[in-house]
Amino acid sequence: MSRPDEFALIRLLTDRNRTLGRRGWGNAKDGQPPKSGVVVGIGDDAAVADISPGCQLVLSCDTMVETVHFNRCTMRDSDIGFKAMASNISDMAAMGAVPRFALVSISIPQGWSTERLSEVYDGLYECADMFDVEIVGGDTTSAPQLLTVTVTIVGEVEAGKALLRSTAREGDAVFVTGELGLSAAGLHYLLGRAETLGSGEEPSQEPGRRDDGPAPVGEAGDRAPQGAARLVEAHRRPIPALRASAIIQQQGHGRALNDISDGLASEAWEIAEASGCGLVLEEAGIPVAAELLEYAEWSGGASMDWILYGGEDYQLIGTVTAEQAADMKLRFERAGLPFYCIGEVRSDFVGVKLRSLTGAVTDVEKRGYNHFPAE
Amino acid sequence: MSRPDEFALIRLLTDRNRTLGRRGWGNAKDGQPPKSGVVVGIGDDAAVADISPGCQLVLSCDTMVETVHFNRCTMRDSDIGFKAMASNISDMAAMGAVPRFALVSISIPQGWSTERLSEVYDGLYECADMFDVEIVGGDTTSAPQLLTVTVTIVGEVEAGKALLRSTAREGDAVFVTGELGLSAAGLHYLLGRAETLGSGEEPSQEPGRRDDGPAPVGEAGDRAPQGAARLVEAHRRPIPALRASAIIQQQGHGRALNDISDGLASEAWEIAEASGCGLVLEEAGIPVAAELLEYAEWSGGASMDWILYGGEDYQLIGTVTAEQAADMKLRFERAGLPFYCIGEVRSDFVGVKLRSLTGAVTDVEKRGYNHFPAE
User: Fold this and answer.
1) Phi, psi of A47 (to 5 degrees)
2) A126, B134, B150, B256: which one has the fewest Cβ atoms less than 10 Å from its Cβ?
3) Which residues in chain A are closer than 8 Å to B367, comparing Cβ atoms?
4) Which of the residue ranges A34-38, A44-48, A315-319, B29-33 would you say has the lowest mean pLDDT?
């Protein structure tokens, strides 16, 4: 597109959402009744919203930058929006909070068509709708070169009930809420495929093929195992563990909690340092997806590296009193959700160790996920 | 600097603020008592904060992008931070709200040294401290080329008391809270000087001169009138009209309210369209700073163009019942603040007109400020 001026673009995106009858975008003047606590939506200098009585605010934001967090080889446009929203909702899950409202700030380079922008917004809304989050405002600016999306999330938690990183105690069981390393392996696959295809960061523009982002997994003659599709989906469309968080909050015996945005090692270290304790993880307890093993074997990658030092799985790692771990596992099972006890909390050191399948105990490096290795 | 990895950088900026004993950055574990409603500050997955009983949330965000909103010729690094915070606090003023908490997301290109980043944060804090706003969280990412700063502001307003754009009524007086056009004229001066000096977007690096951003106004042999310094200050360090907003809120007879981020014309149009009415502005009533007139004469620019179509002055435009306009003016005077009645609200058309000094009435174009003309 020729770039519409700033105001025309804001209007376009706003009108688009009004047209679709999105919740929360109307204000009193539009004659739409306020829903879900939104008193004034997009269209004034700021949004106005209610939070539930007796609740505290929970606030977080996350930014995704083209070429740093995604490119045309790794993400479809709608994935960018979906993941930007998901990573923020995950921060609410990590606090035991309920996400309520979001603001979206997007800086748009000249090369992005209105259609591609629409796709980004589709993804933002798809994830927001999934978790009943209202997009109540934001900012739209131009950018010289690369797309940047910042989502700010506003959630609520019953006063005093936020689940912090600093509350792990000796004897607690360490748990995770799902399989790990999938997203990093998915990224590994996508980057490797892009290199093989030689498409660099630009999408291929063969005749007859729409410019609709990266080719579907398994196309373009690659020989990756079928399971790679699950890894790619985990990278592109992570599902925040909000249901798991709610169970932990309701059960009432959860202690420390963190979402795994930067790999198991990094997040375990954060709990260890904030709580002033040691976490001993048992390799035997850490869940490993069949697809991850299969892909690691095929690609020559190391599944445990992706699990420990990969990122963006957005599962939760937490601790629970040892007495209540079984009860919590039961509650998860009843909800049809996985729950894995993967270690214990100790007070005789500060840090993270791993007991391997052979019984050898080694220190886990304090490092995390730095997005694209090339950056 | 060689770029520290993402986590090292977050730690650096966070530690820096902890070291300085900034308010709100500590959490329970640091042993600092929570202040100003901050229960958990930076260092967990999200911040936790209280808002005042009986209040509604007011939410907004604004992004500033290098080369779109600022460059090395127009802003010192601390100005970038100051203005990013100021524009957000101004949105709270525009709603009659009290700003409370802010989140800062910053995307940092390789070329930005830690020292320059520190300057940006100094500016952010300087403005936040000025208005008692607590920076409670954010995100720090790398960026390939250009600095991007997004600030999200969370404020509060007594339930039902937010001042919207849609509430202007026939017979209301239209007011502004200060002189306009200064920021746009300041930008005009800065861009013109950069062109004259031929420094493009890069700062000069003469021996003995620190790389501390654009030269002070009046240096480098330019012959601009002394008053240009005020215009430049208005562009770099706008002061949000929060005190004015509080008076309007307390007086209780304010109707519509908007902050002037995109020029008088654009903001008046927003009130007109949202309220379904017409605003007739009187040129005789619109305040014009002596420095603006002087600079317009010197540069050959048109002061009324800057006033109507320039932006980023962050004064307020609003309407008040005609009966209460005098009382409001008196309250402003008592507080030592200017207050200008510049027109009236009509119901026989929707839009904005200007009655010139000669009595001729013309339509005011519905266009606003598009940052750098070159973009």
Assistant:
1) -90, 155
2) A126
3) 7
4) B29-33
Residue B32 region by backbone torsions, left for phi larger than 0, else alpha for psi between -120 and 50, else beta: beta
Residues in contact with B293: Cβ distance below 8 Å, sequence separation at least 6, in sequence order: B303
Q: Which residue in B42, B107, B334, B346 sits closest to A148, CA to CA?
A: B107
Q: What gap in Å lies between CA B204 and CA B168, rounded to an integer?
A: 49
- Chain B contact set for A48 (CB, 8 A): 56-59, 95, 157, 162
Label residue A181 left, alpha or beta by phi (over 0 means left) and psi (-120 to 50 means alpha): left
Calpha distance A242→A96 (Å, rounded): 8
Q: Residue with structure tokens 């495929």? A: A193
Chain B CB contacts of A62 under 8 Å are: 105, 139
Residue of A nearest to B62 (CA): A139
Contact B245, B98 (CB under 8 A): no
Q: Does an H or E element contain A351, and which?
A: strand A351-355
* The two three-digit tokens of residue A199, written as one number: 């498409």
Residue pointed to by tokens 């879900």: A36
Which amino acid is present at B9?
Answer: L
Q: Please answer yes or no on whether A48 and B69 come within 8 Å at the CB atom.
A: no
Give the CA-trace dihedral at B265, B266, B272, B276, to 10 degrees: 140
Query: Whole-number mean pLDDT of chain A?
Result: 86
A 10 A CB-CB count for B5 gives: 13
> Is the ipTM reported for this complex over the cut 0.95?
no
Report pLDDT for B260.
Answer: 97
CA distance, residue B57 to nearest chain A CA (Å): 5
| Spatial distance between the Cα atoms of B329 and B321, rounded to a whole number of angstroms | 12
How far apart (Å, rounded) are the C-alpha atoms in residues B149 and B103?
A: 10
